[in-house]
Amino acid sequence: MKHFPIFVALEGRRVVLSGGGDAALAKLRLLLKTEAAIHVYAKAPAPEIVTWADEARLTLHRRTLAAGDCEGATLFYAADEDATEDARTAALATAEGALVNIVDNLSDSQFITPAIVDRDPVTVAIGTEGAAPVLARAIKADLEARLPAHLGLLARIGKAFRHAVDVLPMGRRRRDYWADYYFRQGPRALEQGGPDAVRRTLATLLDDYKTREDRAGHVAFVGAGPGDPELLTLKARRALDEADVVIHDRLVTPEILELARREAVLVDAGKEGFGPSMTQDEINRLIVAHAETGAQVVRLKGGDPTVFGRLDEEIDAVTEAGITYHVVPGITAASASVAAIGQSLTSRGRNSSVRFLTGHDTRGFADHDWAALARPGEVAAIYMGKKSARFIQGRLIMHGADRATPVTVIENATRPDQRVLSTTLDALPADLTAAGLTGPALTFYGLAPRAAQAALIQTKQEFA
Ligand code: SAH
What we know:
Blueprint: E1 14-18, H1 22-31, E2 37-41, H2 47-54, E3 59-61, E4 73-78, H3 83-95, E5 99-102, E6 115-119, E7 122-126, H4 133-146, H5 151-160, H6 172-211, E8 218-223, H7 234-242, E9 245-248, H8 254-257, E10 265-268, H9 280-292, E11 296-301, H10 311-320, E12 324-328, H11 333-340, E13 355-358, E14 360-361, E15 364-365, H12 370-373, E16 380-383, H13 389-398, E17 406-411, E18 419-424, H14 428-435, E19 441-445, H15 450-463
Parallel strand pairs: 1-2, 1-4, 2-3, 4-5, 8-11, 8-12, 9-10, 9-11, 13-16
Antiparallel strand pairs: 6-7, 14-15, 16-19, 17-18, 17-19
Helix pairs in contact: 5-6, 9-10
């Protein structure tokens, strides 16, 4: 981050702008939203600027900027759209202590003006450090559409009420009160009865919250999907939005953790590398301990929480402690991986069932019905199968599996560093070692990537 976003107090402060053309107009339109004392220096000002001066919204000086004009100014805009003149005025302003912006000259500017979504007093500033103005405009348009026009009015009315709400205990109860106001009761009251109804609602809602019991702790077991944040469900997003504590495992990507409520405490329950990772018992105790303080706990698990996630043990711990819970499903690695290779988990005429297997469980390499799997046309999604590749290969071949059965390994499915390794049962262990995969990887037994499989079928026909 080369530019740090801040909100500068401009009420009654002097803001100076040199220039009277289009660039000046664009900046002035933004500056006029503030309560700054705006001074414009322009020999030939655009008609809009003259009108604003007549309306006393700014002070117009029909001359070029001179020494002393920026004395005591907080901000200065060089907007003459002429490099030499901009350099001259910027130097004067800098010497007189103002923070300087030169329009369309990022490198010589001390600050830049963001794209703004205005719901005064709620203001969203969007900056891309000059890298992508198109992106900033698109984000602005998106937010304009998303933030209701009455948000500013609700915030202004709410602000006057802030001190009254001090009677509620700090923390969750107060937060719930405001969330209820902004997102449910406030908009409804405004629609039905205007600002007076909103004020009445603030008061009745407060009476209601004063006598309300604190919300009990609760645990949401949430599927974070395979890694791409866009593959989160809306329910998962909401749970992250409302979380007081997020206890996540190693598979959850930083991009997804970014979406947790800013005040939420993040706990990494899958830390590896530095010392031993947390035991399941420790994780169970941690979840319960947080929920017992009344927290809304999100237990965030990669993929779907019900697939190789030790969910049952955690639910048992939570219910034994008398804590309520709910489960939010997610997209499991098998679904994400099969999508990555253009295949289908089940296919008419090929496989009418699919198995989800784990390469190893808590006791070591996991045993399965190898004879059933070894039959032609079977498909299995093997989770945690990297270390056990040789073991699985041995068992399958021993039970009569064809060595040429396609096997596909998808590493980091849906993430920017996704890789696909297309091989056969015969070559699996050697190819895996050669590929040196380091991320989570799912192994499909009996499935090849669509294009390669088509090529394979073609070759067979040619040979036949
Ligand atoms: N609950 C998870 C699975 C947990 S077990 C789910 O539903 O996906 C962990 C295993 O899942 C990893 O060893 C790997 O085999 C698989 N896995 C998880 N995320 C993956 C990803 N993005 N790409 C490939 N495999 C993944």
